[in-house]
């Protein structure tokens, strides 16, 4: 009997905690969504003219966009066909104003990239949290999962930090080691493992605190998954995020960039 009462009390406490987070998140999203953009390329003679690549979010002075480097940002543009790198803030479920950007900096080790608006007014930027991230901490992320199929609707997922773990995981069998994996193990760094699923297109989404909207990481479902799950024939649906400190370091390396 006593055990049953304790279970009920624990369940009520958990529900109360979730209610607090859920109550804060809708208001937080009103501040987050105007800063989350679609990253893609634009070529007027192509059909469709806009090609979706991934998600990004506005940082710094409002002219900078943070995203993942692996969303084809290291590939050259077809300048002969006037292909340009762009971002767009969706409007009512479709691509909004297309803004041309340039590649400002790329950090391949942490799979991060900074883009810069070529002209025009800045966009609302997100702030950062540099407090310690703890396992069990509530988080949310907003992006464009499978954006080229489901439409450019900003979509939010929520969950918790399930683990803080290294990017590279040693293999029990040395035969499974190859050159790239050995380099990843030697150059490993802590990342956040989440209990929420991110789909293709969510790469580059801001991972933020539901109550404050402050960014604590950048969703990464490509580089980190290949490093941690290289030994699996069927990769899991686990989502990972790069700690925001690496983005801050990249921003600080750029002269004239403000946090």
From TrEMBL:
Keyword RNA-binding part of the UniProt annotation: no
Origin superkingdom: Bacteria
Name under which the protein is recorded: Serine protease
InterPro entries in the cross-refs: Peptidase_S1_PA (IPR009003), Peptidase_S1_PA_chymotrypsin (IPR043504)
Pfam families linked: Trypsin_2 (PF13365)
GO molecular function term, any single one: peptidase activity
Signal peptide: 1-23
Annotated keywords: Hydrolase, Protease, Signal
GO biological process: proteolysis
